[in-house]
Amino acid sequence: MSREDIAERFKRDTAEHVMTIRHDDGLYRHLQFSNPDRRWAYWFQIITVPNALIFRGDGESFVFSRLEDMFAFFRGPIGHINPTYWAEKLTSDRDSVMKYSQDLFNQHVADDLKQAEADWPGVTAAWEKKVSGFFAEYNTEYEHDARAALNDFQYLPEGATGEPFRFQDAWEWQLKEYHWWFLWALHGIVWGIAQYDAAKAASEDTYLVWSNEHRCWWGPNRSGYAQDVWKAGRYDRESAAAICQTRSWPQDAPPPEVMVLAPEAGRGAFTVDDFRVLPEMMRQRVEEATGKAISDRDADQSAAVTA
To answer: Are both 225 and 292 inside the same structural domain?
Structure first.
């Protein structure tokens, strides 16, 4: 099953899923996704605590750790996943996400035999005799047998002299690929975060805080900074306003911080095209918020002088 097939399968499997928020307190979240009419069919949960995200459901569970807020780590466009990088952040069994692929094995073998056929005519047929049919000596559905077949096989055409054909450096071949359930789970995490963001945006405005001083976003929980808008902290209006009102600034300088609407505020899931225009959209929001803060400050000063 290709990665494209798994992405399409995820869409089918979760077409009727709804989200239930079982717990939502800062970085402590517990989200349930299931079909109300078939709760046992491909249900899954996303659970977060500081520095960890747990995915559990119909198959094996996975635990990831990278950032304090793991939603910031995984947040992105629906349908786009990064298995290689994300697998590096697993704190659960990393080996479980890879499985032997007979298709990969057959492709490696076919490539080598195609090149070898000119110098060792009949080598492909000799190989097929070893691994196919009722009298096959190896069952390449299993990695152990497949590796043994590669190691043991040699062929020299009848009547020929010289070195027989052998598979060279076959021990270096990568014969494993990501298990379909792991890829399905990654799609579930990205999709689930998007559903959560949409629900939060519908219920309340969500803000980011931009630092003109450091040229980046405030991080989650007023801690650190982030260049990536998806790794920035999310704040309600009151909290964001409180951050931006804590300091005055020189007359000839921009405000140290400004609050802007988060990109997900008031909308649902994002398309790939949305993500392409996102940097310019957020730049404009920062520019507008900075201009407004300066205008408001000047107006307040003028009012104070008049009074």
So the answer is: yes
